[in-house]
From TrEMBL:
It comes from the Eukaryota. It comes from Arachis hypogaea. InterPro entries: CRAL-TRIO_dom, CRAL-TRIO_dom_sf, CRAL/TRIO_N_dom, CRAL/TRIO_N_dom_sf. Signal peptide: none annotated. It holds the Pfam family CRAL_TRIO_N. PANTHER family: CRAL-TRIO DOMAIN-CONTAINING PROTEIN, SEC14P-LIKE PHOSPHATIDYLINOSITOL TRANSFER FAMILY PROTEIN. This is CRAL-TRIO domain-containing protein.
């Protein structure tokens, strides 16, 4: 770390020492004992400007307090059938770990429909996974490997990406904004696989809009990405849609233990049981309110808005082209 970076870190530490309760309390849930690593994440997100990073972090802590994010892991989505329908339409799961101990999250971008519940339930589910990752999964991996592990890798499956993705842009922008503003720099690398032509076209126009540090994290892999991903993880940690060419994503697979999206997968079972247990503990203090956990949606950064508009524009271009089918899954591209 250079002198400028160290100076910025020292300045941010000094500023954070002046933050009072209850922000200090929620900050503990954010850093989980890894204060320096957490401050560095926010500094990276604000180009190592300590004052801007301080504002970003304090804004995030206020968001957590105002929306009771510290308690979100004691707010189960009930009944279980509702949560199962969310899992069937918001495809995300933990498939395993890289050889360095980084959690590998699989996301079915193309086949996620977000059509089984209100926006609030999907946002609640997303934040719960974020918080469980940061408070349980990452600390456990850090302890196992004897070193701080504070980031993950994500494998994004574009199988099934259609023009109907236009209907999801608003929700995806909300989720992306929540991550950018409150969970910055938590993803080490984004691996994009099973890429149809429609994604290739959007990526060409979106890529220049991304900040350089974000562009460096994105790797578009050929086909299902199996060979490339096996360089950083064992086969057991590969998402099911990367196991073989043409395997694709799915809402349900032959075996629930193989499909990391499913509520029957060990990760989701552990997460759901953890939330139920935390709910029982919390209920001894105050009654649990049923219903979705409403979170204030942040105003998306200008960059997010521009990217969303660009994607929408590109999808409309394809939609209006004569002779172009709704789904272009068959056309693949190699990684950039």
């Amino acid at each position: 770390m250079g002198d400028v970076s160290q100076d910025a870190l020292n300045n941010l530490k000094s500023l954070m020492d002046q933050v009072e309760e209850p922000l200090q309390r929620t900050f503990q849930n954010v850093h989980q004992g890894y204060v320096t690593e957490t401050l560095v994440r926010f500094l990276k997100a604000r180009e190592w400007n300590a004052s801007k990073a301080h504002k970003m972090l304090v804004d995030s802590l206020n968001w957590r307090v105002q929306n009771e994010i510290d308690n979100i892991l004691s707010k189960p989505i009930v009944p279980p059938d509702l949560y199962r329908s969310i899992r069937d339409s918001q495809l995300i799961g933990l498939s395993g770990y890289s050889r360095e101990g980084l959690p590998v999250f699989a996301i079915g971008v193309g086949l996620s429909t977000f059509d089984k519940a209100s926006v609030h339930y999907y946002v609640q589910s997303h934040i719960q996974i974020n918080e469980y990752r940061d408070r349980v999964v990452l600390p456990s991996s850090s302890k196992k490997h004897g070193q701080p592990i504070t980031t993950c890798v994500k494998v994004l499956d574009m199988t099934g990406l259609k023009f109907s993705a236009l209907n999801q842009i608003k929700l995806l922008t909300i989720i992306s904004s929540i991550d950018d503003l409150n969970y910055p720099e938590k993803t080490n690398t984004y691996y994009i696989v099973n890429v149809p032509y429609i994604f290739s076209a959007c990526w060409k126009v979106v890529k220049p809009l991304l900040q350089e540090r974000t562009r460096r994290k994105v790797q578009v892999l050929p086909g299902c990405g199996r060979d490339e991903l096996l360089q950083i993880m064992d086969e057991a940690s590969l998402p099911h849609f990367c196991r073989k060419e043409g395997s694709g994503s799915s809402r349900r697979s032959e075996g629930s233990s193989e499909n990391c999206y499913s509520l029957d997968h060990p990760f989701h079972q552990e997460l759901y049981n953890y939330i139920k247990e935390q709910s029982r503990i919390h209920e001894k203090v105050e009654p649990i309110k049923q219903g979705s956990f409403h979170v204030d949606f942040p105003e998306p950064p200008a960059e997010e808005v521009e990217i969303a508009k660009t994607i929408e524009s590109e999808l409309h271009k394809f939609e209006n082209c004569n002779g172009v089918s709704d789904s272009l899954d068959g056309l693949k591209i190699n990684g950039d």
